[in-house]
Q: What sequence folds into this?
C-alpha cells in the first residue's frame, strides 16, 4: 500500500485538497459561522482562538488514523483560498471511511463540492485499504444528497435519528471499491 505521509495536495480541475493552514482562519470562520452552511452539520461555530487551534491541529495531524477525524481544506485552484473542508474518518477496522463536507455558500451550486468529494474518494481508495466510503446526510439536505449521488454513491439505508434535539430521517450513502475492476478515469475504482 502506498505511503500516507505525503498524501496532499490533490489537484483537481477547479479545486485543490490540501492541509488547512493558519492563513485560512478568516475564510474558515466566514462559512462556519453561516447558519445556512451549518444547518445540517454536526459542528457548531467556534470563537477565533478555538478555530485557530483546530486548524493547527489538523495541519499537523497524522493522516488516516483509525477512529480519528481529519479535516482537510477545499481550496480554489486558481487563488488558493479556502472555500470549504472535508472531514474524513477511517473506521477502527480500516475497511470503511466516512466523509462529510462543507462549502462556502457563495461557492455552492457550481460543482465544486462534487469535484472535491470525488477527489477525496479517489484519495482514500489510493492511499488506504478502505473498501467502502460512506456519507450520512439528513434527508432534508437535498444539496448534499445530490453531491453524494453525483459521485456514484448509492443510498444504502434510511433511519430515524435525532439531530440537535429534533427528530429527523438520515440517509446512509456508500460507494464500494470494486476489487475485480481496474481503476476508473479518475484513479479510483467505483461501484
A:
Amino acid at each position: 500500500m502506498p505511503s500516507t505521509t505525503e498524501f496532499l495536495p490533490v489537484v483537481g480541475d477547479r479545486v485543490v485538497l490540501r492541509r488547512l493552514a493558519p492563513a485560512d482562519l478568516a475564510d474558515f470562520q466566514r462559512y462556519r459561522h453561516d447558519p445556512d452552511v451549518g444547518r445540517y452539520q454536526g459542528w457548531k461555530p467556534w470563537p477565533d482562538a478555538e478555530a485557530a487551534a483546530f486548524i493547527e491541529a489538523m495541519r499537523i495531524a497524522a493522516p488516516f488514523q483509525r477512529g480519528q477525524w481529519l479535516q482537510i481544506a477545499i481550496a480554489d485552484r486558481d487563488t488558493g483560498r479556502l472555500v470549504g473542508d472535508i472531514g474524513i474518518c477511517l473506521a477502527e477496522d480500516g475497511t470503511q471511511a466516512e466523509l462529510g463536507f462543507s462549502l462556502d455558500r457563495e461557492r455552492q451550486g457550481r460543482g465544486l463540492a462534487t469535484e472535491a468529494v470525488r477527489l477525496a474518494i479517489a484519495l482514500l481508495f489510493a492511499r488506504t485499504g478502505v473498501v467502502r466510503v460512506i456519507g450520512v446526510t439528513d434527508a432534508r439536505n437535498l444539496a448534499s444528497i445530490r453531491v453524494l449521488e453525483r459521485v456514484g454513491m448509492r443510498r444504502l439505508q434510511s433511519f430515524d435519528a435525532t439531530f440537535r434535539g429534533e427528530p429527523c430521517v438520515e440517509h446512509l450513502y456508500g460507494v464500494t471499491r470494486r476489487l475485480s475492476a481496474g481503476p476508473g478515469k479518475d484513479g479510483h475504482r467505483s461501484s
Observations:
- The chain is about 25% helix and 30% strand.
- The CA atoms of residues 7 and 43 lie 25 Å apart.
- The longest helix spans residues 112-127.
